[in-house]
Every structure is written in structure tokens, then in C-alpha cells.
């Protein structure tokens, strides 16, 4: 929507006002995330720019908080926990979710919408309610303060994303392909891995990414279910904000932003690949 | 074609069974196969998620304490008419139950439960239980009445009798600022104790404000993204998607760094001379902090559906309206905006659902004036340990979310939900 040549002064003013407004909103969206990056290199234990930082004095910048992040055992332990829990629950959520999505996309699936509603309910119910329910239930069966308990909880929270993305990929799926595979002598398992899987792989991967990030970012359930040993990165950040504000959490935040940028790039690549395969080229 | 012979009976399949039956069998097989694929996840969700939620909801009506731990009193009170202080047999049962409870150390649960209904009963029960151990013989009524003045009050007995039932709506009454009065009628709480009504109102109010702010901010941005050429809009989309993919804790931390009194925003204000150094703005640990941070966090959830709807509106409609003589404003309001209503609806419900259940951000930047109902649930779960009330508040919150979700499903359809 470039400004047409015949635009009058009013339209020109509005055009630039509108652009300015949008620029402000984009700024609102991105500034907080960008601000923490330089702040994390602060040499002083403050959450704010020191005068040295503003005059670009190299002395005012340091890697002190990153050093704290990689040497402090509380933090390194939480990184391990986060990855263990996120990877385990992603694997579980992806396999369970993909199977269910295959079933849900079959034309003969009975009670389809009811099933779908139940299966994606963990995404709709507010986290505090899920956490409260799990807290009571899991403590009754001795699963609180265990890795298994948190992995199960995170798997439940992650599966809706897998179900939704894989079902979406299966919408255009040609079921005669499976029949053709069966006709040519493939067992259902072979047909699944050789025919179906390669086609729905982008959906499975982006579902898995969603499941991973859900678990990696989740803190409410962890707050209620985890003991001291199962503290994850977000849980550690939570107590960092609540108890002792140290710029280490800014360093951690910067690392997490870097991770989310790479995730974003992966998803974008997947999307482009999907478009290329389907013959849609970006304009 | 004349010599084709149609079989007189039902059409048969190759194996000689009627085709209809054969087809039915095949269909059933397919259905079972589809169900089998879904079953593992269904069972998993059932045990790891749905049962815990049901369990929590049951806790909000569960009232086992008095009936189980004071069984004899419960039976003795069954025929009590509630008009005056009960007679000797009830007191005998009470002393026996209290003594048993004191020995097994379970009486505290009864005391806590009854204290929710009538404050002060906790010490009455625990104190009398200790004394009941020393009572050797009757008449019991006289001795108990001397223990504590509350045993002489009729409503103490009303409360006990009411709570011998295994289920209660007491927690729900509490959650909506109602209570039983002395005569057992349901009345409103005293003005100063009506906190949950206000909290629900505040939660819905804040969510509404955030939703409106999100619409106002998302609309121009989505319009720009939808109308720019794809190579620019893909680039600008990063501004929306990066916050979307960034950890919630990171964004909350970022807002703390931005908004605190020694934070970036206040520094800038002081630097440009908008405010002076001594009266920096209090932007965090209050309502303002919650609204700003949550609007930022939920904005992508509004931009994405709006963008995808606007993307489908052909630009020629606006041009047609303009060439037919509408001025740009009229054309926009009467031609463009109505077509974006479904996007606004979808985004609004999504943002609203997410914000009424939000916990983390209000807890970290909300202070006391910016906390929501979920923070109160967490408080009753972890600090006051009034789990019944936490369950009741949770169930009410859940009910409102489900109603909204039902609306969302009607407007958008869950199958059309787009991620990323």
C-alpha cells in the first residue's frame, strides 16, 4: 500500500501518521526484549543502565552474569532439569499426539468433535487450575516432587499442540496413498514410516517444537509439583525475581531469547519447505 | 444390457455374505482402528489431566471431616430439631468424639473445617478436645457447657449439624461472598468481607481492558502487515513472532527492567525532563504494571488471527467503495471493518480466555492491586491451605473459561485454530 501519486495533503498526513503509529506499536512489542540484551552485560549488579554503559565505557560492560550462570550449580542444575523434562515430555507428547491425530483424521472416527475437545482441553484450561488439580492428584499417588510427575504433567500440556498441528497437516492428506501402500504389500507399520510419516513430518516437527517450548517455558505446574531437585530454568528465574534480583536472570533471559530466535528460524524454514513442496511460492 | 441378470435377493459380496453386512463390518473395523489410535492419548489425558481436574472440583464440595471424625455426634444430632441447645446424649457423644479425636490427633481437621464456617470455632474445638480427655463420667452437658461459651450458643450446633453432611456448598457460597446466617439462611457477607466478588469483577475488568487495548494496538499493525508486500510483511512479522516465542518469564523480567522506578522508562522520562528525579512514576507492582505487561504478552494472540482474516480481504473492495464516492473513513468503517469482525471476535475471546486465567505475570508485577483470581487460588493452595475454597474458586474460573471457549468454538471452530 504505497502512497499513490494523486494523494492529497490530508491523505499524505494520514499515511505518515499511520506509519508512525505502527512503528510505535512495533517498538512496544520488541523494545522490552531488546533492552535486556545490553543490560545483561552490566558490570554492576543493577537492573538498569549505568552512566558508564550509556557512555560506552568498556569497563562498564562485563560477562560477569554469564559467568555466574554457567558456574552457579543452581543454574546449571536447572538447565539440566529443563532439558531432561522438556525432551522427555516432547518425545511422549509427539508420539501420543501423532497417533491420536492419525485416528482423529480417519473419516470413520466416531465422536470426533467430543474427542478433539477432550484431547485439547489441557490447552484451554487455565494453567493455575491444571496445576491445582495435578497438585492434589499427583501428591495422592506419590508423583509430586518427582521427575516423572512433572514429565507427565508437561506431556499432557504439550499434546494438544501436536494434535492440532498434525491434524492440520492431515487435512489435505490423500488416504488412497495408504491404500496403495497396503495394496503393494506394505504392512501398516511400513506404510506409516515409509509413506505417511515423510508427508506429515513438517506438522510433526512443528508440533514437537510447540510441545518442547511449552514444557521449557512452563512454570506454574513446576511451582506446584516440583521439589527443590526438579527446579527448571523458569522456576529458577521465578525465584530469582521474587527473592534476589540479580542480573544473572537477564543473562539467562538473553540466552533464552537466542534460543527462541533459533526456534523461530526453524519454524520459518519448515514453513517455506512446506510451501515449496506444495508448490506455493511466497509472493 | 438386456441380459444382465439382477439377483433377486440382497446383493452379495465375494464371500457370499450380504454386501450391506460386509460393508458394515468393514466400517466397524475402520471405526475401531481409528478409536484404537486415539485411545492411548485419551487414556493418558484422562489420568494425567482430566481426573486431577475432576478431583479438584470434587474437593470444592467435599465435606468429610465432621461426618467421619465425629461419627457419634453426627448420629446423635440427626434428630435434633435445632430450636434449643441439644440434650445430654448429644453431649455424651460429643465428649467421646472429641476425646477420640484428641487421641488420634485428627481433631484439628474438624476444627479447621468448622472454623471456615464460623470463625473462632477452631480454638473452641481443639481446646474442648483437650479437656474432653479428662472427663471421666457424666453428666456431660454441664461439664461441656462450662468449657467454652460457644457451646452455649445455638448457632455453633447449627453449624456442626449442617456440616455432618458429606457434601457442602459452603465453599461456593464463600467464593461468591455469601454465607449462612445464624438461622441457617443464605445471606450476603458483611460489606468488609466481600472480597471475591470484587476480585472476580477486577479479573474480568482487567481482562476486558487488556482485550480492548490489544484490539486497538493489533488492528493498525495487522492492517499494515496484511497490506504490505509479502517480503516486507514477512520481515515485520518477526516483531510479532519474536515476542510470541520468547519465554514468558523473560518478557516479565524485561518489563520489570523497563518499568521499575530505577528502570529504563523512568530514566528516559527523567532524562527528557518529563518528571524530576524525586518523583519517579510507580509503574510496577500495581495495576498499571499488570496491564502493560499482559497487553504486551497477549498482543501477538490478537495480531495473528486479525492478520490472517485481513489477508483474505481483497483490496479491490476498498477501491470500489472509494470509486463509488464513499470518503475513506466511511469506506473503512462500512466496507472494511465489518469483514474483520470475525478476526476481532476470535482474537478477543482468545486474549480474554488467556488473561482471566493468568497467574505468573500478575504475581510478579501485580503487587497487591494488580493480582487476579488465579493469584488468590494459588494463595489458598499454598499459604492458607483452604483447599476447598481454592477448588471452588478454580471451578468457577473453569466454568467461565469453558463458556468462553464454547463461544470461541462457535465463532472460529477449534479446527481452524492456527499456530505460529
Polypeptide structure, described:
The complex is a heterodimer of chains A (283) and B (420). With 283 residues, chain A is mainly alpha-helical. Chain A has 13 helices and no strands. In chain A, helix 4 (73-105) crosses helix 12. Chain A is globular, with a radius of gyration of 24 Å. Chain A starts with 8 loop residues before the first helix and ends in a 5-residue tail after the last helix. The mean pLDDT of chain A is 87. Helix content of chain B is 68%, strand content 1%. The mean pLDDT of chain B is 87. In chain B, a hairpin with a 5-residue loop joins strand 1 (178-180) and strand 2. Chain B contains 19 helices and two strands. The two termini of chain B are 58 Å apart. With 420 residues, chain B is mainly alpha-helical. Chains A and B meet through helix 1, helix 4, helix 5, helix 6 and helix 7 of A and helix 1, helix 10, helix 11, helix 12 and helix 14 of B.
Alpha plus pi helix count of chain B: 19
Oligomer, anyone? heterodimer
Main sheet makeup of chain B: 2 strands, antiparallel
Q: Give the helix/strand class of chain A.
A: mainly alpha
The third-level CATH topology of the largest domain in chain B is MetI-like fold
The largest sheet of chain B has its strands arranged as 1-2
Q: What structural class should be given to the helix and strand makeup of chain B?
A: mainly alpha
Helix/strand order of chain B: HHHHHHHHHEEHHHHHHHHHH
Q: Write down the CATH class of the largest domain in chain B.
A: Mainly Alpha
What's the Cα radius of gyration of chain B? 32 Å
Instruction: Please give the domain count of chain B.
Output: 3
Distance N terminus to C terminus of chain B? 58 Å
CATH-derived architecture of the largest domain in chain B? Orthogonal Bundle
For the residues shown, what is the average pLDDT of chain B? Answer: 87
Number of helices of chain A: 13
- Per the principal axes of the C-alpha atoms, what is the gross shape of chain B? flat
Amino acid at each position: 500500500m504505497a502512497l499513490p501519486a494523486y494523494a492529497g495533503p490530508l491523505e499524505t498526513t494520514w499515511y505518515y501518521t499511520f506509519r508512525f503509529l505502527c512503528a510505535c506499536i512495533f517498538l512496544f512489542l520488541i523494545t522490552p526484549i531488546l533492552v535486556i540484551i545490553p543490560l545483561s552485560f552490566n558490570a554492576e549488579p543493577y537492573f538498569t543502565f549505568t552512566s558508564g554503559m550509556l557512555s560506552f565505557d568498556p569497563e562498564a560492560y562485563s560477562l560477569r552474569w554469564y559467568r555466574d550462570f554457567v558456574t552457579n550449580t543452581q543454574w546449571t542444575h536447572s538447565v539440566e532439569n529443563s532439558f531432561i523434562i522438556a525432551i522427555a515430555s516432547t518425545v511422549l507428547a509427539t508420539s501420543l499426539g501423532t497417533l491420536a491425530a492419525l485416528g482423529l483424521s480417519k473419516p470413520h472416527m466416531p465422536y470426533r468433535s467430543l474427542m478433539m475437545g477432550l484431547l485439547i482441553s489441557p490447552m484451554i484450561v487455565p494453567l493455575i487450575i491444571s496445576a491445582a488439580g495435578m497438585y492434589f492428584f499427583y501428591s495422592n499417588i506419590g508423583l509430586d516432587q518427582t521427575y516423572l510427575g512433572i514429565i507427565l504433567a508437561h506431556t499432557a500440556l504439550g499434546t494438544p499442540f501436536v494434535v492440532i498441528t498434525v491434524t492440520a497437516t492431515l487435512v489435505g492428506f490423500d488416504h488412497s496413498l495408504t491404500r496403495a501402500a497396503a495394496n503393494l504389500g506394505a504392512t501398516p507399520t511400513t506404510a506409516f514410516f515409509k509413506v505417511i510419516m515423510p508427508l506429515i513430518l513438517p506438522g510433526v516437527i512443528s508440533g514437537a517444537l510447540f510441545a518442547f517450548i511449552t514444557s521449557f517455558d512452563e512454570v506454574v505446574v513446576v511451582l506446584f509439583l516440583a521439589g527443590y531437585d526438579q527446579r527448571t530454568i523458569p522456576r529458577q528465574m521465578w525465584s530469582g525475581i521474587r527473592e534476589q534480583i540479580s542480573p544473572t536472570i537477564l543473562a539467562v533471559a538473553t540466552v533464552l531469547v537466542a534460543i527462541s530466535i533459533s526456534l523461530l528460524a526453524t519454524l520459518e524454514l519448515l514453513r517455506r519447505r512446506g510451501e515449496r513442496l506444495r508448490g506455493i511460492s511466497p509472493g | 444390457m438386456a441380459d444382465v441378470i439382477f439377483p433377486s435377493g440382497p446383493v452379495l459380496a465375494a464371500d457370499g455374505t450380504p454386501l450391506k453386512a460386509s460393508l458394515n463390518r468393514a466400517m466397524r473395523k475402520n471405526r475401531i482402528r481409528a478409536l484404537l489410535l486415539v485411545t492411548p492419548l485419551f487414556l493418558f489425558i484422562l489420568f494425567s489431566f482430566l481426573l486431577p481436574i475432576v478431583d479438584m472440583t470434587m474437593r470444592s464440595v467435599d465435606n468429610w471431616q465432621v461426618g467421619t471424625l465425629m461419627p457419634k455426634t453426627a448420629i446423635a444430632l440427626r434428630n435434633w430439631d435445632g430450636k434449643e441447645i441439644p440434650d445430654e446424649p448429644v453431649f455424651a457423644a460429643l465428649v467421646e468424639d472429641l476425646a477420640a479425636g484428641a487421641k488420634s490427633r485428627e481433631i484439628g481437621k474438624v476444627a479447621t473445617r468448622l472454623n471456615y464456617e464460623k470463625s473462632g470455632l477452631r480454638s473452641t474445638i481443639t481446646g474442648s478436645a483437650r479437656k474432653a480427655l479428662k472427663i471421666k463420667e457424666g453428666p456431660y452437658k454441664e461439664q461441656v457447657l462450662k468449657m467454652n461459651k460457644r457451646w452455649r450458643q445455638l448457632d455453633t450446633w447449627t453449624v456442626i449439624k449442617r456440616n455432618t453432611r458429606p457434601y457442602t456448598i459452603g465453599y461456593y457460597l464463600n467464593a461468591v461472598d455469601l454465607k449462612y446466617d445464624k438461622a441457617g439462611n443464605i445471606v450476603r457477607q458483611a460489606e468488609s468481607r466481600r472480597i471475591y466478588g470484587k476480585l472476580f469483577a477486577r479479573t474480568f475488568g482487567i481482562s476486558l481492558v487488556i482485550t480492548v487495548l490489544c484490539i486497538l494496538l493489533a488492528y493498525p499493525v495487522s492492517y499494515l502487515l496484511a497490506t504490505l508486500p509479502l517480503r516486507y510483511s514477512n520481515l515485520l512479522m518477526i516483531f510479532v513472532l519474536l515476542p510470541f516465542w520468547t519465554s514468558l518469564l523473560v518478557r516479565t523480567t524485561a518489563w520489570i527492567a523497563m518499568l521499575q522506578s530505577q528502570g529504563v522508562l523512568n530514566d528516559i522520562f527523567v532524562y527528557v525532563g518529563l518528571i524530576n528525579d524525586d518523583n519517579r512514576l510507580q509503574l510496577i507492582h500495581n495495576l498499571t504494571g499488570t496491564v502493560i505487561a499482559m497487553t504486551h504478552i497477549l498482543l501477538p494472540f490478537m495480531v495473528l488471527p486479525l492478520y490472517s482474516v485481513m489477508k483474505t480481504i481483497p483490496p479491490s473492495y476498498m477501491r470500489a467503495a472509494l470509486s463509488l464516492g464513499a470518503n475513506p473513513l466511511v469506506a473503512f468503517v462500512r466496507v472494511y471493518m465489518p469483514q474483520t469482525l470475525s478476526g476481532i471476535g476470535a482474537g478477543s475471546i482468545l486474549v480474554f480466555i488467556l488473561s482471566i486465567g493468568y497467574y505468573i505475570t500478575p504475581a510478579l508485577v501485580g503487587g497487591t492491586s494488580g493480582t487476579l483470581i488465579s493469584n488468590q487460588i494459588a494463595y489458598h493452595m499454598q499459604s492458607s491451605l483452604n483447599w476447598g475454597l481454592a477448588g471452588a474458586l478454580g471451578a468457577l474460573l473453569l466454568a467461565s473459561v469453558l463458556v468462553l471457549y464454547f463461544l470461541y468454538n462457535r465463532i472460529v471452530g477449534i479446527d481452524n485454530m492456527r499456530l505460529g
